[in-house]
Amino acid sequence: MSDSRARNSEVSKMARQPRPRLTLDIAAIPTYAIGDIHGRYDLLVKAEAAILRDSARLPGRKLIVTLGDYIDRGPESSQVIAHLMEPPPDGFDRICLAGNHEIAMLDYIDGWISYDDWMQMGSAELLKSYGLDPEHLPLVFPSGAKLDAFIRQSLPRTHIDFMRAMPVLLETPSVIFVHAGINPKLPLDRQTDEDLLLIRQRFLESRVPLPKLVVHGHTPNDEPDVRPRRLNIDTRAYRSGKLTVARLWQGKVHLFST
C-alpha cells in the first residue's frame, strides 16, 4: 500500500472516533514536555532523572507531558508503555498524548491497515519487545488472517487500552501541546485528529500567526527547532540517543537533552 493509501486509512479511522482533548491551566505548574521516545526506555529513564534533578528547587506539584510516538523503531517499546502506565515520579502528574505510531498500532489491531503496512512504521522492533519474532511469524502463519489474529491476541490488552485512552491535545492558556502540530488556518475547536497527529509542511511552513506557543514533535531534527510560537523537540531519540525535554514555567522555556 502506498503512503497516501495508508494515510487515508488512518484518516478514515480517526474521523470515526475523535480522540479526547484536554484543557488545563499550568500557569503555576512547572511543566516538562518530553519529545518522541520511539522505544528508547533507557533514554526515558534518563530524561525523568534529569527532570527530577531540575525540578528539585521548584515549588509545588509538577507536570510531565509526553508528546506521543512511544513505540516502534527503538528496541524497548513494551517497556516504554509499561513505564508510562505506572504512577509518575513523586510530586508529579503525567499526561501521555497520542502519536501517529500509537494510532497506527491501533489501526492494525482493529483491521484498518495490513501487517505489511504496519511493519513500514518500524513496528518489527515493537513486536520483538513483546517477545514476538516478526521474521519467523509469517512462516508459522502463512495465512494473513491467522497471523493477524495471533499478534492481536499476543499484545497485552492493558497496553492497548492505555493507547486507546490517550488524548490527542492539551491546551493551556498560553501553550498547546500536541504530537505533530496544528492547522494554522483553523481554530482549535475545528482541528482534525489527522492534522494533530500527522501534519507537517502546512504547519511548519505556514506564515499564518499561531494562536499561542505550540510544543510538538513528529518531525525529527538534529537539534530542537525553536521558533517564536513553535517548539519542536523531536530529536531522533531512537537513533541519536538524544531525547529532548522542554521545561515551561513562568513564561520561560528551558531545554535539555539526554
SSE topology:
Blueprint: H1 3-16, E1 21-23, E2 31-34, H2 41-55, E3 62-66, H3 77-85, E4 92-96, H4 100-109, H5 115-119, H6 123-129, H7 137-140, H8 144-154, H9 157-164, E5 169-171, E6 175-178, H10 193-198, H11 201-204, E7 213-216, E8 225-227, E9 230-232, H12 237-240, E10 244-249, E11 252-257
Parallel strand pairs: 1-5, 2-3, 3-4, 6-7, 7-9
Antiparallel strand pairs: 2-10, 5-6, 8-9, 10-11
Q: Give the CA-based shape.
A: globular
- Round the mean pLDDT to the nearest integer and report it: 93
Q: At the fourth CATH level, what is the homologous superfamily of the domain at 21-102 and 163-257?
A: Metallo-dependent phosphatases
Radius of gyration: 18 Å
- Our estimate of the beta-strand percent is 15-25%
Low-confidence stretches: 1-15
What is the tally of beta strands?
11
Query: What is the fold-level CATH name, i.e. the topology of the domain at 21-102 and 163-257?
Result: Purple Acid Phosphatase, chain A, domain 2
N-to-C order of helices and strands: HEEHEHEHHHHHHEEHHEEEHEE
What is the rounded distance between the termini?
36 Å
> Biggest β-sheet: count, sense, barrel?
6 strands, mixed
Structural class by secondary-structure content: alpha/beta
**Biggest β-sheet: strands ordered side by side in the sheet:** 1-5-6-7-9-8
CATH class of the domain at 21-102 and 163-257: Alpha Beta
What share of the residues lie within helices? 25-40%
Number of helices: 12
